[in-house]
Amino acid sequence: MSNPPTLSLAPHILEVEGESAFTYLARAKELERQGMSIVSFGIGQPDFDTPAHIKEAAAKALEEGFTGYTPTAGIAEAREAVADYLNQRYGASVSPDEVLIAPGAKGAIFTGMLAFLRPGDEVIVLEPSYPAYAQIAKALHARPVYVPIEWHGPSEGFKINLGWVEEALTERTRMIVLNNPQNPTGALFSPKQVMELLDLARERGLILLADEIYDNFVYDAEFRSVLQDPAWRDTVVYINGLSKTFAMTGWRLGYLVARREIMGKMAELAVNIYSCATSFAQKAIVAAYKGPWEPVREMVEIFKRRRDMLHDRLSRIPGFEVWKPLGAFYMFPRVKKLLDEAGMTSKDLATKLLEEYGVVVLPGTAFPDKAGEGFLRFSYASSFEDIEEGTRRIARAVEDILSSAKK
Ligand SMILES: Cc1ncc(COP(=O)(O)O)c(C=O)c1O
Fold first, then answer.
1. CA-to-CA distance for 371 and 234, rounded, in angstroms?
2. Rounded to two decimals, what is the model's pTM?
3. Which of 5, 71, 115, 228 stands 20 to 30 A from 234 (CA)?
4. Class of the 5-49+295-406 domain?
């Protein structure tokens, strides 16, 4: 039955798409309920518990009755803890009043985009991309303009092609989104590339929305934060959060950092959306950044070993071209040769792997717009046993696909 006209959704909202990771996961759960054994490389969240000292800080706050509203921008000590972290790590000179605590990095991205985008503005989205940037832009009457990042093969991986970004700029361009380290490719853009993009944004008077939520997941490589640029305040709206670094996805804690002069209005905007982030959870921010950092270091070390193992196993599968990523916890192998031979799309392959072999991977096209066609995304937030079993199943699936393609 269709909705009565009164309930017809706004046309620009009809263009907003959900997040495939959640859809595939729901289907996997359904198959599991039906008795199928499932191995998941689907979801982008650490399979670790939040470190004990962080949970204790929140429990203590609850115990002490810290359960009311807080200032919208966050409690002072949490804003201070974030500023201290960024300053110690990046020499950024962030002051606590330049920090807005939000319900998740996604809440921070939404608030940041809402504050700056005007109807019809264009937002440059480097694709394949974390889906929310483009969907939020659409929800705000703005327009995502997709610019592919360039695949340089299994030994070099993914790089920003600055010429392609420049070509996509128009007089309507308002913002460029940079996610580094990157979801879904695991790319870590070089210090030079980061500085070039900052310079371009500055020259053209554009906002650089920089999402560095994976800044603690960097393997054998140099990471340059946009906050290391002494003039970051001219052009950067910075996003980070606790979800990934401290295995806190369900806590919903993220933050936005921008120049002091706009933060008052930013808080006035935020108060109308979410009032404040959860009070007792904010107390945990202080504990998280204060440390001990040992649990984070141990987790990242395990991720690195999983990356090496997954890279090794996938590289042995015919038709898989696999670059060993330098950041985040994703791998984005190119499977175009296999797909061409089998007459399949990335989505066909992901569906087949789930429905027939019980392996959750996401098609590259789940990360809009089209540049992900020919790729699959693996999250290696899975145990060593699951990596072994999952890649064994994929190898068997590929064998089956290739032998039926030859018939
Ligand atoms: C690049 C990127 N930014 C933001 C988020 C969302 O983080 P949060 O759970 O803190 O909202 C994710 C989660 O997958 C992500 O991959």
1. 31
2. 0.97
3. 71
4. alpha beta
